Amino acid sequence: MFVAFSLVLFQSADPRAQPPRHLALVGGMLLDGYETPPIHHAAVLIEGNKIVQVGPAAEVKIPADATVIDTSGRTMMPGMMEMHAHLAILGHGDYGRWFPWLAEHKGQFPPERILEISAKQLLMSGITAAIDLGGPMRESLSVRDRIAHGDIPGPRMEMSGPAIAHRAGPPGPGASLSLLAGTGITSPDEAAQATEDHIKQGVDVIKCQVPLSYEEYKAIVDAAHKHGVKVHAHLYSESELADAFHAGVDVLQHVGSAGVPLYSPALVKEIVDSGRPVVPTAAHRVFVWPATLDFPERLQNPQLKKDFPPEIYAEVQDSLKDYRWLRYFNTTDRQMFFGDAGMKQWITSGAVVGMGTDSGTPMNFHIDALWREAKAFVDHGMSPQLVISALTRINSRIYGKPNDLGTIEPGKLADVIVVDGNPLFDIVALSHVETVVKDGVVWKKDGVFVDAVKSRRTSQDEN
Ligand SMILES: [Zn+2]
User: Fold this and answer.
1) How far is the CA of 405 from the centre of ligand 1 (A)?
2) C-alpha 92 – ligand 1 centre gap (Å)
3) HSE of 283 in the Cβ direction (CA atoms, 13 Å)?
4) Mean pLDDT rounded to a whole number for the chain
5) pLDDT (tens digit, 9 = 90+) per residue, 3-55?
6) Protein residues within 5 Å, CB atom, of ion ligand 1
7) pLDDT, position 391
């Protein structure tokens, strides 16, 4: 608190204030988040936490005091944004086992620690902003705020807390932590009240989850919009989609991945015409499942072992040892049956399609969920450039910060990543994130985590 206070004074009043720090990323190809040709051998100049100059390196004047990161031979692009994450889960195979395990081990691993692990994984994967749609209230808000203060690594976060839903959640140990926990509403009035309560507690977005009636959606939307808060709905079927859309829900989550027949052209047209976004979360069952059958070794990605404490790694591995029979994948055959057509319906519809993954769900790790989603879209006909735009510029609209995030241009907040290779040629280059800059701060460089928390503390001690 004291630090933040003195910083404000320093910036606003002190005539001895030092000029803001400069950081320059120089040499690589630049994708700016628009569907325009890349700038080759480009440079991005950052002052403090803002982008101030962008262009061919020969034309960008780099101040002598700037810290320069050589990006030659690589690709620079806006930080990716994840529109559907769950920080309370890490890819463990079974919620019914994970949350009781957490409750049992909370002395050793306070639940907040799990959210911290997820947040760091997302940031190291090049994700500089994310929306968590379902997690424990206190821990979610605390982790969001600690990230925002620079105390722990993670993306900028919008948090929903527990879903507004009929279900109250599973009974038993760990229930309050479970992302299956809901508010247990039974009427439109209660839905409105739960929405108000969530907003009062400090959530950024509202997540609501089927089954809900049209009147309940309407009550939630009206209550949320009074406070300028967006509503995301988790839904599948035609009638659920129609009810949520007509009630004014802002973001339609999971459509196109749900194992249901195609939506009627009339409803799709209405959604397209409205400009309201859909986030299909296409990959989490339909593509993660065959990818694992093809290459079960992905479950032992060495990064997971590095990121998880040994006990958590062992528990996650054990939960996945019979992954073919996990209950979570019971409906996957049906989802795969409709998967390709469902996805193509949205890709070819002209709808605003955002990118989110349900990351953290079984076998859907925070370290690879988003590039797998991107690959699924490219494999189904979306151009790599449009996919990159969706991950960045379009997602910044869903996130509600289109003027600050999502593209690389002067005046925007400095969320920039560097990937090895050319994602326009092979979108899987997005899995090779070498450098991550968030809010002008370097959190990863040359593939290695940079402890910006520690270096900030050290420089404060020296001052
Ligand atoms: Zn979800």
Assistant:
1) 23
2) 14
3) 28
4) 93
5) 444 444 444 445 556 778 999 999 999 999 999 999 999 999 999 999 999 99
6) 358
7) 98
